[in-house]
Amino acid sequence: MNGWIALSAAIAVFTGIGAGVGIGVATSKAAEAVSRQPEASGKITTITVIGAALAEATAIYGFVVALILLFAKWGT
To answer: How confident is the model at residue 73 (pLDDT cuts 50, 70, 90)?
Structure first.
């Protein structure tokens, strides 16, 4: 049973990969948008920071789930 718990925790941590890719894509698109329309850089930056925070929150949730799986007392 401990092996399955460890495997589940490892899978939960993989949410960090998705968050990293998402933040990278969003940042690259924001840089493109600012280069095309420099006068809108304030709005673009704000939206990008909010999006990055939401994506990072997803990774943190996955990490918390992994910690809960690893440190929860199963069967008690």
So the answer is: low
Q: How many Cα atoms occupy the beta-carbon half-sphere of 3 within 13 Å?
A: 0
Domain of residue 44 covers 2-71
pTM listed for this prediction: 0.71
Would 57 be classed as within a structural domain? yes
Give pLDDT tens digits for 27-45.
999 999 999 999 999 999 9
Residue 28's identity, in one-letter code, is: S
DSSP single-letter state for residue 39: G
Mapped onto helix, strand or coil, the DSSP state of residue 74 is: coil
Number of domains in the chain: 1
Q: Is residue 76 situated within a structural domain?
A: no
